[in-house]
């Protein structure tokens, strides 16, 4: 499911209280991999939640857990599919699978809702009342989105975690300040998990990634026919989907002024109105916002609404950059090392020299950059060339001072050696930008893929890269 700009989970049917709520609801990607499931889904198929979210629907059919899947049919036919599904426990449900598309028509994911066959079958689609469904209000589980444990060794971060624990017990809006990459969303999830809304959904939206023309529709939803190209069945917005849980607005300073006004009204009244609708709906959520900008200064130059600022500025937490808490660098590095060793099935260690290089670096990209550096260390085999660590911490060594370059190269290299080092760093930076897809990286570098492989072999002997 996309992280940067959220297209809401909904099947598009009008709400109603005249029909029973769905018992089972889950979301899959276009290949049938389970992304979200409520507790009832796991109980019905008899598979533990942790295991269920690692399965594909084809596997459930193959092992006899389900006799068929209308989700897979909907993915194949790119339209709503429905019918009866039986489990290995002889439980019969009526399933409806709804594909959700991006504005350019790409299939993003599928929402499937199942109701017991004893429910009113005359209008089975009415069971798709997602606003009150367990998947959005209770027991939501999202595959691969389990919040990382917050690693804190410095007194500064321990104090922030203590403050966050106190903030979690409140229900007022909160603003998280900090440079990019300091872990504002991780802290927001920490607050959510320790709040009385932990059983509800955590809806994260990057305001900077919202399409200007569709931002209002994505946040507040829309009814069918609201605008040209709209889903013919309408869409629930993320503010509405956060009912009972937490709404996290990252980079809130990028929210357009007209939407700032509408968000303020939602916070004041608890009511929202979809585009193309004249009906007010209620949504009870806790708002956490985050930014790396000075909102107070933005109110003075008119780029951020003063009334919204003062409505949000109830509780604020400031995450310091990584360079101001060097005690956290080694424990974070070892934390990420453990995760990547498990991910790639490696058993690589960080020696003291590497940790020293990490601690001497100022980390302009903060925790995110450190995480990427540890992954690069493992994936590109830098553990065999520890002298290269200082040179590869930033994207082509641009952050290193000239004196640091001389120290790293021990001041004894020839021009040829220096050019070789620069070539290695530059190729690694392009690979990283291409998510280590060798085909794409070769195109950007203007060389053949075989030439790229040959150069990589001379650098590290590493071949654990992606094709494409």
From TrEMBL:
The lineage of its organism: Bacteria, Bacillati, Bacillota, Negativicutes, Selenomonadales. It comes from Sporomusa termitida. Residues 150-379 form the Sigma-54 factor interaction domain. SUPFAM superfamilies: Homeodomain-like, P-loop containing nucleoside triphosphate hydrolases, PYP-like sensor domain (PAS domain). InterPro entries: AAA+_ATPase (IPR003593), AAA_lid_NorR (IPR058031), Homeodomain-like_sf (IPR009057), HTH_Fis (IPR002197), P-loop_NTPase (IPR027417), PAS (IPR000014), PAS-like_dom_sf (IPR035965), PAS_fold (IPR013767). Residues 25-62 form the PAS domain. The keyword Transcription applies. GO terms for biological process: regulation of DNA-templated transcription. Pfam families: AAA_lid_14 (PF25601), HTH_8 (PF02954), PAS (PF00989), Sigma54_activat (PF00158). Keywords: ATP-binding, DNA-binding, Nucleotide-binding, Transcription, Transcription regulation. GO terms for molecular function: ATP binding; sequence-specific DNA binding. This is Anaerobic nitric oxide reductase transcription regulator NorR.
């Amino acid at each position: 499911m996309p992280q940067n700009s959220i297209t809401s989970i909904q099947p598009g049917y009008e709400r109603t209280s005249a029909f029973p709520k769905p018992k089972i609801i889950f979301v899959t990607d276009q290949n049938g991999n389970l992304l979200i499931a409520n507790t009832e889904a796991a109980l019905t198929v008899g598979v533990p939640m942790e295991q269920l979210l690692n399965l594909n629907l084809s596997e459930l059919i193959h092992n006899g857990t389900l006799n068929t899947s209308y989700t897979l049919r909907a993915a194949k036919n790119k339209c709503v599919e429905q019918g009866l599904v039986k489990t290995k426990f002889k439980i019969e449900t009526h399933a409806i699978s709804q594909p959700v598309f991006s504005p350019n028509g790409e299939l993003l994911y599928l929402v499937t809702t199942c109701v017991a066959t004893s429910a009113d079958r005359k209008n089975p689609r009415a069971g798709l009342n997602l606003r009150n469904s367990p998947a959005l209000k209770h027991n939501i589980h999202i595959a691969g989105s389990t919040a990382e444990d917050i690693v804190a060794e410095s007194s500064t971060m321990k104090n922030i975690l203590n403050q966050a624990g106190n903030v979690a017990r409140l229900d007022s809006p909160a603003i998280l300040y900090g440079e990019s990459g300091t872990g504002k969303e991780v802290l927001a999830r920490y607050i959510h998990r320790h709040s009385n809304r932990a059983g509800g959904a955590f809806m994260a939206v990057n305001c900077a990634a919202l399409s200007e023309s569709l931002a209002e529709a994505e946040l507040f939803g829309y009814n069918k026919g609201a605008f040209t190209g709209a889903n013919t069945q309408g869409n629930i917005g993320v503010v509405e989907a956060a009912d009972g849980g937490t709404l996290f607005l990252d980079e809130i300073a990028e929210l357009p002024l007209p939407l700032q006004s509408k968000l303020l009204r939602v916070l004041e009244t608890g009511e929202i109105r979809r585009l193309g609708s004249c009906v007010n709906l209620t949504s009870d959520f806790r708002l956490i916002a985050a930014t790396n900008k000075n909102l107070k200064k933005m109110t003075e130059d008119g780029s951020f609404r003063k009334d919204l600022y003062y409505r949000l500025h109830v509780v604020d937490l400031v995450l310091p950059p990584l360079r101001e808490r060097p005690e956290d660098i080694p424990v974070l590095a070892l934390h990420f090392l453990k995760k990547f060793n498990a991910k790639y099935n490696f058993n690589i260690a960080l020696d003291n020299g590497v940790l020293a290089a990490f601690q001497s670096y100022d980390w302009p990209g903060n925790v995110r950059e450190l995480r990427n550096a540890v992954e690069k260390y493992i994936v590109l085999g830098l553990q065999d060339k520890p002298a290269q660590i200082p040179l590869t911490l930033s994207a082509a060594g641009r952050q290193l001072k000239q004196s640091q370059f001389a120290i790293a190269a021990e001041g004894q290299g020839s021009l040829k050696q220096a050019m070789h080092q620069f070539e290695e760093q530059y190729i690694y930076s392009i690979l990283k930008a291409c998510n280590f897809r060798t085909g794409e990286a070769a195109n950007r570098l203007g060389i053949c893929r075989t030439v790229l492989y040959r150069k990589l072999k001379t650098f590290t002997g590493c071949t654990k890269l992606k094709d494409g």
